[in-house]
Each structure stands twice: as structure tokens, then as C-alpha cells.
Amino acid sequence: MPQTELHTAQIVGETPAWMAELYSCFDTLNVEAVLTYFSPDCRIRFGNGEPTVGHDEFLVGAGAFLQSVRGMCHRFRQVWQCGESAVLVADVGYTLHNGNTLSLPAITVLHRRSDGLIDDMQVVLDVAPLFAE
Predict the structure, then answer these.
(1) CA-based end-to-end distance of the chain
(2) I want to staple 80 with a disulfide (CB 3.0 to 4.6 A). Which of 24, 28, 56, 87 is the partner?
(3) d(C-alpha 40, C-alpha 17), whole Å
(4) Cα atoms found within 13 Å of the Cα of residue 92, Cβ hemisphere only
């Protein structure tokens, strides 16, 4: 049986630049800039929703969600990397249209291709409290 290279997940001391830049785009609600980090055939899934595949489907889903908030801010707690994959643990602060703010915990799993583009993203986050306000 051939040996395969083993990867061991390691916590990252500082957030990788590409990840900080990506989430800066999310936090400014700039969906077009967000998409520059994703492959054209990317698969993105938020919570227990159906995954979107490709930029066009993501724009439709993200556009609808972003209209429901006035702003957001990701505060990174931990970043783990293992090969081409990364796991981000964060608190996401949301500002609602009525001025109220809410912070929700989230875990995101990202996979990047060899060219650096993200081809898979899974966000584990319960957004129900945003709509209970």
C-alpha cells in the first residue's frame, strides 16, 4: 500500500492575509469583491440551507441575506489549517436595520484549490436569532 502524506491540523498564530482580506470584503458587504476569492464553480453552503454552486447562485442567495442586515463584523477566535483546508472559528457581529446589534458564533470550513481560489465553503451558523428581532 503506497504511503500518503499526512496532514496535521495546526492552529495559526495570525490570520492568513488571504483570509483577512476575504472577510474584510464580507464585512463591507462587497459581494462582488468576495467572489474574486472563489472559483467559478464554487460550492457554498450556509447552515442547513441548500448549497449554491457558482457565482450566480451565490449572488442571488447572498444578496437576499445581505439586504436583511445593515452591517457585519467578523471577530476571529481561532484559525486552523490542514493542507488546502482551513477552519475559522469566529463571532459574527450583525447590525440590523433597526439599529440593534447581535453577535453569533460561527464555524467556517474552507477549501482552496492549488491556484488559491476557494472551491468549497461550509458555514455553520444559526441565523434564526437575526430574524427573531
Answers:
(1) 57
(2) 87
(3) 21
(4) 23
